Amino acid sequence: MTDHPQGPRTSLHEGEQAIVTGSTRGIGEAVVRQLAARGMSVVMVGRSGTALRHAADRIRAAVPGADLRLEVADLSLVRDVRALADRLVETTSPSVVISNAAVTADIGARTAEGNQLTLATNHLAPYVLMRTLAARVEAPARFVVVGADPTVLKRYPVDLDDLHAQNARALSRFPSMRRFAAYARTKNMNTMFVYGLARRLADSGVTVNGAHPGIIAGTGLSRDARGLEKALATMVQLNPARKTPDQGAETPEWAATDPSLDGVNGQFFVDREQVTTPDHTLALERCEALWERTAEMTGMAP
User: Fold this and answer.
1) Residues 275-299, mean pLDDT to the nearest whole number
2) Confidence at 8, pLDDT banded by 50, 70, 90
3) Lesser CB count within 10 Å: N end or C end of the chain?
4) How far apart are the C-alpha atoms of 84 and 73, rounded to whole Å?
């Protein structure tokens, strides 16, 4: 794969609106730059106003005239996500929504609302944001959730009775791998959410799909890794198949914009190829149980 060229280019998406979470660095920033280069107006969502402004400056330097709007929200807090969603419903009419924000936190880390931090940021946030927007957005529109490698995730099925990852031993017998295991579970939750939302959006003109960006260098997800997780992160950085953030952004951006995917709903893509995710993410009963338990945690109707 080659990087997308920088600067404005002719596009069918000229003047359309997009929303991208986790847009202050890495894949998210690269996705915003690629969408802006298509002439789209992009709402950048991030936790830090300073980081958002710096990222926007970098994007405008690469794409002169990029139309960017900055939205500050702490995606680990359901109340912040709900407020963000309400603002976006009132002020935007997006044809593209990309959920990219993700963290890897210690399993004991809790938000001010009492939710496990990785769960709150990686799963509860896109659930609340995308459900709220999907109920109000005008079709046609595409929602894309940035996921992770389905092959790796096969070993980390969601424990529907332990969404907050309190059973440390069940995550991994190696303490230094438990952060990663909790993260992997939330990425499987992302996939299950894609399928659940896709079923509810069938024939609405709004589609939702998942996309794995590949092995990416410099995401910052493993900056606090220790022990075996740190060794794994080092191996990833040395992997010759690793991609730059620009290359990693290509599949999510393609899933959000390519005309060949008009009407394609409830699929998962790796390197622009449709793939089958693990059986435990496909089971309807499991997906519906996760949907309902997440609704209860976030105060939304199931």
Assistant:
1) 98
2) very low
3) C
4) 7
Instruction: DSSP for 80-145, please give it.
Output: HHHHHHHHHHHH---SEEEE-------TT-B-TTS-BHHHIIIIIHHHHHHHHHHTTPPSSEEEEE
Q: List the domain boundaries for the chain.
A: 17-296
Instruction: Please state whether the peptide bond connecting residue 150 to the residue before it is cis, i.e. omega within 30 degrees of 0.
Output: no
Long-range CB contacts (within 8 A, 24+) of 284-293? 286/158, 286/160, 286/192, 287/192, 287/195, 287/196, 288/196, 289/160, 290/158, 290/160, 290/163, 290/189, 290/192, 290/193, 290/196, 291/192, 291/193, 291/196, 293/160, 293/163
CATH of 17-296, picked from 2.40.30.160, 3.40.1440.60, 3.30.1360.120, 3.40.50.720, is: 3.40.50.720
For 129-166, what is each residue's pLDDT tens digit? 999 999 999 999 999 999 999 999 999 999 999 999 99
Residue bearing the bigger pLDDT, 188 or 220: 188
- Please give the Cα distance from 7 to 66 (Å, whole number): 9
| CA R_g for the chain | 18
* Structural contact between residues 190 and 124, judged by C-beta atoms closer than 8 angstroms: no
Question: Looking at residue 186, what DSSP letter applies?
Answer: H
